[in-house]
Design brief:
Layout (H helix, E strand, L loop, with lengths): L2 H8 L1 E4 L2 E3 L5 H13 L14 H5 L23
Antiparallel strand pairs: 1-2
Length: 80
């Protein structure tokens, strides 16, 4: 199993290069850690931080206004 496969099938991307996974039991946590260790990328650093469900639930999300340079139009001709 490749590193990318591990990420795509096991973890949720919270932001670019930051992934999370809810693990209910200590056994599940140990298993996930072993999978990460066995499939670590050939270069770079992987950091693992375990937090309790209670700590995770206290996370605060601050989101600014979303803007995009993409023009959302159904017109056939757009003059910039």
């Amino acid at each position: 199993m490749s590193w990318r496969t591990v990420i795509k099938n096991v973890f949720l991307m919270m932001q670019e290069s930051v992934y999370c996974r809810m693990l209910i039991t200590p056994t599940a946590e140990r298993t996930a850690m072993e999978i990460i260790r066995k499939n670590k990328p050939p270069s770079g650093t992987v950091q693992i931080l375990s937090v309790t469900e209670k700590q995770f639930s206290k996370m605060e999300y601050l989101v600014g206004k979303n803007h995009s340079d993409m023009i959302d139009s159904d017109e056939r001709l757009i003059i910039l």
